[in-house]
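Example record used in the benchmark description.
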Amino acid sequence: MIGAALNFWIYMFVVLVGAKLLGFAEDTKMLVIAIAGSILIYFGIRRFLSKR
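Model output (structure tokens):
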């Protein structure tokens, strides 16, 4: 459980750095959309992998 939470925060850090590098972080709305989308993708991938 702790490992999953740590993976999530590492993933979020990578997403934030990536958004900053791509220029999404200039606009707050785009940053929020990027974060929300990445969270949905992250949990979608986790659920998909756990079913297999």
